[in-house]
Amino acid sequence: MSRARELADLLGGGQTITTADNNPQLILKSTDDDASFGPILQLFRDSASPADDDVLGQVKFHGRNDAAEELTYGKIDVVLRDASDGTEDTEMRFLVMRDGLNPNALKLGSVSTVFNDA
Fold first, then answer.
1. Across the strands, what pairs with 96?
2. Are 54 and 83 in contact (CB under 8 A)?
3. How many Cα atoms are found within 13 Å in the side-chain-facing hemisphere of 36?
4. Could you read off the pLDDT of 6-57 as tens digits, one per residue?
5. H/E/C letters for each residue in 68-106?
6. Using CA atoms, how far apart are residues 89 and 81, in angstroms rounded to an integer?
7. Parent domain of 23
8. What is the four-CA torsion angle of 97, 103, 109, 114, rounded to 10 degrees?
9. What is the DSSP letter of 52?
10. Separation CA 53–CA 67 (nearest Å)
11. Residues 50, 83: contact at Cβ < 8 Å?
C-alpha cells in the first residue's frame, strides 16, 4: 500500500486546511534532479464500473461576491467520453464565470478544440 493511500485511509473523509494569511496551504515538492516529471498531483477516479461521460475529476475556484454569497468562479474538469478499452477518449473543460453562469470557455477534446462554447 502506498504512503498516500495509507495517509488517506488514516485521515478518513475529506479534509480542510485553513490558514489566515496568504502562504500556500499545500506544497507538493520534489527534490529529484532528473529530467522526468515531478512533482505530480494525481486525481484518480477508481470506479468499479467506469462509463462514458463520467467526470474523472474537477478543480473548483470558490470565492464570495459582494453579497457574501459563496460562488464557484471557475472550474477545470475532465470527462471520460469513451470508456471502451483501446478507444478511450476524454475531454478537458475550462469553465469561467460570466454573467453569473459558468459556461465552457475552452473545451479540449480528442478531435477538436472549442473556444467560448456558450
1. 74
2. yes
3. 5
4. 766 777 777 888 889 998 898 999 999 899 988 999 999 999 999 999 999 9
5. CCEEEEEEEEEEEEECCCCCCEEEEEEEECECCECCEEE
6. 5
7. 3-117
8. -100
9. T
10. 35
11. yes
